[in-house]
Amino acid sequence: MFMAFSDPVPALEIRGLCKSFTRPAVDGLDLTVRCGELYTLLGPNGAGKTTTLRMVVGLLRPDAGSIRVRGVDALADPRAAKQVMAWVSDEPMIYDKLTPLEYLELVAGLWGIDGGEARLRAQRLLDWLNLAPHAHQRCESFSKGMRQKVALAGALVHEPSLIVLDEPLTGLDAGSARLVKTVLREHVAAGRTIIMTTHILEVAERMADRIGVIAGGRLIAQGTLDELRRQAGAKTGDGGQSLEDTLEDTFLALVAEEAAAA
Amino acid sequence: MSAPGSIAWIARHELRLAWRDWLAMMTAGGRTRVRTLLVVLLGATAFMHAIAFSIVGRFAAPALDADKTTLVVVTGSALLSWSLMLSQAMESVTRAFYTRSDLDLLLSSPVPPARAFAVRIGAIVLSVTAMSALFAAPFINVLAVLGGARWLTAYASVAAAATAAVAIAALLTTALFRTIGPKRTRLVAQIVAAVIGAGFVVGLQLAAIVSQGTLSRLAVLASEPLVAIAPDVGSLLWWPARAVLGDMVAGLAWLAASGVLLCVAIAVVAPRFADCAIAAAGTPHAPTRPSRFVRPARRAGLGRAFRGGSPMALLRRKEWTLLLRDPWLVSQTLMQLLYLLPPALLLWRSFGGEAGREILLVPVLVMAAGQLAGGLAWLAISGEDAPELIATAPLAAGTILRAKVEAVMGCILTVFAPFVLALALVAPAYAAVAGLGIAIAAASATEVQLCFRAQAKRSHFRRRQTFSRVATFAEAFVSIAWAATAALAATGTTLAAMPGAVAVGILARAHLFGPQSTAS
Question: Does B282 touch chain A (CB under 8 A)?
């Protein structure tokens, strides 16, 4: 049973997160994602979005800071945190020599789901994502869009409460993109939480409950689109952006201001 | 300057790519390693010449009118080398059809595809010649210094043999395309290449075992029945052998004949190159319905591999399924098993043969197990296709690694158990030593791969050595050391402790200095 916004325990809580490579990629990031919301991270290239998400799912170890997934310390108890999370990267890595059905059964098994239940869920997801006709073909002949859908199905098959997606719509055609957006919205409506990055501002504008803007490894603004417009106006000193301004205008204003300050 | 799009222009482009590819392979991408590479190459060259001197120094000046036995032995040995050239050429030609990289660019450009193919085939000839000359050069040089410049004709023989190999490989691959279609050609060509590479060597050894009861292929080549049925010394069949022995006329004739064969192959294949390459590109890697190669796996229950079971069991089954479904790995494994055939036949013959001969099997099996385990461990550990899925699964890192190691050891058990059981029927003590040696060698090779694990694509299996040369050498030497240990242990001598200590030392160093040693 999933709890929506009223759940006092956040789906994801990040405090003072830092990670440096040759230069700081994430620099003292604080971020809270509430249960049952679709949160979109925006930011220019190299802002630290993907690095942040990779630390959340345990693919990178932070230099400092804390990550709590539904109240569980993800750094102290990564297995418990991973049990309720799923991750899909922008370059879907799936097994070429497995069929989508086998892949989904494997993923379900890794998350401890019983074989019969795994098959039912896998078939339902394949139907949902229009992959059922290809259920018994090996993934090696699939297009990037189909691979992306298989990877997404893999993320959903164990019904995680927090789904972490890095550019989930990259490489999808218009029909597939709409399908994926619908699937994601339905999961949020069912009480699950999604945090995702995207470069397609229209997607964030239409889908996100809240949007976070990252630049230089720090969260420079967050909120609903209206809240972001107000923050952008306050930062640029023009008394507030027009309500007709698109997210693109708002985003560019916020990032430009941050760049000027840096 | 050559005109853009001309054969010379494309050839220059191909040569530049080949040179950079070779340099990257030799230096593992490190520019600062070029000087080290030069020093290593010079050292290796000197060492190889010393080895060559000790082997062929005394044959530097035989009479040109070599007797029939010499011609048979030289021809047989040349055929052995040529079978390896043909294997390499078939693999390269197959890759020329299937590897996309710049093929899409070339085929979408206004350059005639036949021209691009001719250049690509020429590049393969150069590459096969260079590789073969690398091994032959120390021997030819030693003979030329000691016996005169006429021995340099052997270089022409090497070039001629490589040219003929590539021409035949091109014709064979195209014939496969036409007969079985692009869908199956890649798999079949890879397997044929592996079988050709090992088949002739193994075949001669099998013949030697059957006729002479030894593992020496020279025994069968120099045997009286074979020499008796061979053509007369004046036959044209011996010209390649005469060319190897320094006959300039024979060398030039052999080179010219190979050149003509290559031109014929290019003329026949080049016009079809674009069609074949496009057909290869349009072929899904796997058929919609299970192929013949997959059906046995289905029968074995792998079709339901991922329904139920613990996460560890799932991971093990995943590794086995991926291995079984990979044509290239099937051919690689086939190659390893082919080399086990001669010792297996020796074992079979030894049921009525002299006692104690089976001891030969012990180091062969241990060495083969170490090598096979190293390859499988690289695939399971470094060649993980979905590392992020596995890393984000709610499993401890140790559990994941243990499952992968168990998958590797399971394969080794499946492959080697029949040999050990058969050996146990003849010599139980040797079987016990071999079994223990196999387990230790396989575990050691896997441990080396664990210490040097990296993230790589499974498709890079052929070039896994380039990811870590230290790991490659450590894996090879540890297998050799355990094979020596097992052989000595089978004889009952305490000297077995010496190579055993060397193996443990190598493992300790790998564990201490491997990039993953601190992380694991």
Answer: no
